[in-house]
Amino acid sequence: MLKQLLNIIFLLCICALTGTAQEFNCKITLRHDKIAGVDPKVFSGMEKALNDFVNSHKWTTDEFAPTEKIDCNIMINLIGNNVNGDVDAYSATMSIQATRPVYNTTYTSPLINYIDKDISFHYSQFNTLNFDDNSVSGTDPLASNITAVLAYYCYLTLGLDYDSFAPNGGTNFFKKAQNVVNNAPDGKGITGWKAVESTHNRYWIVDQILNNRFGDVRNYWYQLHRECLDSMYAKPVEARTRILVNLRKLFTVSRENPNSIIIQFFFNAKTDEIQHILSQAPKQERGQYITMLTAMDVPNAPKYNAMR
């Protein structure tokens, strides 16, 4: 009887631990070498607070086992302070990378690889970072901006992850990201949220992801991951061929929507992966795909052309 009771307690503990497991295994690194005259303890406290915020917040209603957590790395580079005369307000850039495991392999496929250059926020030592979907801007817009930005990219990454496992599986998370955009902090020095500020910012990324006009980008995203990469171990030639042939879907979207951020956003993450897959195709078959890739992914055109 005692042994059975101990087993039950053990199972309940395991279930409790699993139930509280959050969605991200995220490492946030803070660079502050350009900031002078600030106690280094402020930055160590800030880095810990940011890591705790992303890794401890419950972003979904789903339960994630520890092995199911999404691996991501965020590097925040502080490039200035004294924003709007506030010595505790910083301007920064943020680099976000996240990956997804590929079935039956040790390979991880990139979900996002993006640099956001429009970051500004207020942080005081020992600040508690909070986020509420129903009150994104909070009571202090500049202080709330850092949690809004992180929440936006957490939802965006979740959407990309879920989309890679089921057709349009990430829609709810993309809508949550869009909700952050629509209710984002607004104030002097805060940028990156409004359509009128740029054609390549947070507003347009999620707007285009959810726009049916760009639906084939999401279709290709699912096919690339679930139908091709996840079956690469069993049918490598077939999977590789489908990845390349289906590039036509992206090419059509790109041709009909020149300079759209969603195409650039896709290739920021996938250029190296696509190049590797292309390198495995017979040389005589590469030309048609290289023509499409150089038109879509212009910054990397020389790399593709070198593969002819």
Mind explaining what this structure looks like?
This protein is of the alpha+beta class. It has two domains: 16-210, no CATH class; 217-305, no CATH class. 48% of the residues lie in helices and 17% in strands. The protein is built from eleven helices and four strands. A four-stranded mixed β-sheet has the order 1-2-3-4. The protein is globular and about 60 Å long. Mean pLDDT is 92; it is low at 1-19.
What global shape is seen?
globular
Radius of gyration: 21 Å
Which stretches are low in confidence, meaning pLDDT under 50 for 5 or more residues running?
1-19
Structural class: alpha+beta
The helix content is: 40-55%
User: Cα distance, first to last residue?
Assistant: 72 Å
**Number of extended strands:** 4
How many domain modules?
Answer: 2
> Which strand order do you get reading across the main beta sheet?
1-2-3-4
Q: What is the average per-residue confidence, as pLDDT, rounded to a whole number?
A: 92
Largest sheet: 4 strands, mixed
Element layout with pairings:
Elements: H1 2-19, E1 24-31, H2 40-56, E2 70-83, E3 86-101, E4 108-122, H3 141-163, H4 171-182, H5 202-210, H6 215-228, H7 236-245, H8 247-256, H9 261-279, H10 287-296, H11 301-305
Parallel strand pairs: 1-2
Antiparallel strand pairs: 2-3, 3-4
Helix pairs in contact: 3-4, 4-5, 6-7, 8-10
Quick structural overview:
The chain is α+β, with helices and mostly antiparallel strands and 308 residues long. It contains eleven helices and four strands; from the N terminus they run αβαβββααααααααα. A four-stranded mixed beta sheet has the order 1-2-3-4.
